[in-house]
Automatic annotation (TrEMBL):
Belongs to the IMPACT family. Signal peptide: none annotated. Residues 140-194 form the UPF0029 domain. PANTHER family: IMPACT FAMILY MEMBER YIGZ, IMPACT-RELATED. InterPro entries: EFG_III/V, Impact, Impact_N, Impact_N_sf, Impact_YigZ-like, Ribosomal_Su5_D2-typ_SF, UPF0029_Impact_C, UPF0029_Impact_CS. Pfam families: DUF1949 (PF09186), Impact_N (PF01205). NCBIfam families: IMPACT_YIGZ. Gene3D superfamilies: 3.30.70.240, Impact, N-terminal domain (3.30.230.30). This is YigZ family protein. Residues 20-124 form the Impact N-terminal domain. It comes from Streptomyces kunmingensis.
Length: 206
């Protein structure tokens, strides 16, 4: 399993003009294939008069799902170069839709490949990317009297506090790098004088 992956920093649109054709590249993070397809459908709805709405997406930290569509452009001249740009930049959990408004000048196969791939590359440069790292979810349980100090100590040492739940005890959910688990156990036992519980959960990215 990948220890980290890169994705687009935020949803956005970048426009370029090539030989009078407008190319609008919409990019968005997508956690699932369903999210990616919903984004494609939304962009198509926003541009019903466009000549083409070509798309590509990569889902999974290991890029296990990859799809591309030329949407009426000559085969292999739009979706594939878009997908190649995403994979070359090692992008994951991302969807790109390039909307083309034809300007009257034919670009030829090579021109289309450069235009569609380039539109995605420029959009990535404009919107920026972020790296997400894999970590283990863990829950610290502690009594109410010590909970406030424990939460402060966790934040002060740079731990990511994801959730705090109050029942008979207080459960503080945190994210830990895999290599930090044993060191954290020792730290927790020390600062809580052995009164805090600790339970490891599943894996996530953040």
């Amino acid at each position: 399993m990948q220890d980290e992956y890169r994705t687009v920093a935020r949803e956005g649109v970048h426009e370029t003009e090539i030989s009078r054709s407008r190319f609008l590249c919409a990019l968005a993070p997508a956690a699932t294939e369903e999210e990616a397809q919903a984004f494609v459908a939304r962009i198509r709805k926003e541009h019903p008069t466009a000549n083409h709405n070509c798309y590509a997406y990569v889902i999974g930290a290991d890029a296990s799902v990859q799809k591309a569509s030329d949407d009426g452009e000559p085969g292999g001249t739009a979706g594939v170069p878009m997908l190649q740009m995403l994979t070359r930049r090692e992008m994951r959990y991302v969807v790109a839709v390039v909307t083309r408004y034809f300007g009257g000048v034919k670009l030829g196969a090579g021109g289309l490949i450069r235009a569609y791939g380039g539109a995605v590359g420029e959009a990535l440069d404009t919107l920026g990317t972020v790296t997400r790292r894999r970590f283990r979810l863990a829950t610290v349980t502690i009594d109410h009297t010590r909970a406030g100090k424990m939460e402060n100590d966790l934040r002060a040492t740079g731990r990511e506090v994801r959730d705090v739940r109050y029942t008979e005890t207080v459960a503080i959910e945190i994210g830990l790098p895999e290599g930090d688990v044993e060191r954290f156990r020792a730290w927790l036992a020390d600062v809580s004088a052995g009164t805090a519980g600790f339970e490891l959960g599943g894996e996530a990215y953040g």
